[in-house]
Amino acid sequence: EGMAARGTANKGMRMCCAGQGAGWAARRRIAARADLDNGRGSVQTSAGQKNSVKECLERLEGEISEGRKDRAMHLANEMKQSGDLKAFGGASWVPKRAYALQDLRLNKIEPTALLSPEEDYLEKLSASCTTLYLALLASTSFVGHWDISQTLALAMLSAGAIVVDKVGFNGGLETLAIDSLARYLSDDYVKRVSRHEAGHFVVAYLLGILPSGYTISSWDAFTKSKQL
Q1: Which of 190, 221, 197, 217 is nearest to 121 (CA)?
Q2: Collapsing DSSP states into helix, strand and coil, what is residue 49?
Q3: Helix, strand, coil tally for the chain in percent (to 5)
Q4: Within a 10 A sphere around the Cβ of 199, how many other Cβ atoms?
């Protein structure tokens, strides 16, 4: 009878512990759902946490687009404290040091490797387009048996359009046309521009600076700002 009583007591204790465990699990699920509804990032499930971070980022983007920089910065700092934006403003400031050529050679550093890379694809494409246009103008005047006055008139009209673009729009029309053509012809150019702009964002993110906007192409800038 004593063994039976102990077995019954142990069974009762296991049932009690199981009931407490179920109660704790239910309370954790309720707390997790409340955190998700409130937009906090303390949800234990991975899917809930991803949704929470996405919602916070959408709120952050909305504050930036509305021009509320103080509220956006406050939200970004809250996300940093919660661990969602761990590296925001986490860059360490290093004093600038001017290296002499001799220091670089002692450390076996090639000085030319420190120079900024040059992007001349647009210049080459612009030169190619100019050459093609002149060739078409010459061939058209030859095939069409134009006289010298007609050829000069078209050349003057083209030169006038270029001057208006350079003076009135600071070369914006040419840049818009050449950049759009380059993005159509070269996927490598599109990737280089995207990585370049991403580098601006990464530096700003590490320095704790929120971007006010971005443009990825000349056409994108024209459609957003209505300016060339």
Answers
A1: 190
A2: helix
A3: 75, 0, 25
A4: 10
Contact 82, 41 (CB under 8 A): yes
Give the predicted TM-score (pTM) of the model. Answer: 0.65
C-alpha to C-alpha distance for 182 and 188, rounded to whole angstroms: 10
The widest CA-to-CA distance across the chain, in whole angstroms, is 125
Closest CA to 79 of 61, 57, 58, 46: 57
pLDDT digits (tens, 9 = 90+) for 74-91: 999 999 998 888 899 988
Q: Which residues contact 176 (CB under 8 A, 6 or more apart)?
A: 218, 219, 222, 228
Distance CA 142, CA 151 (A): 10
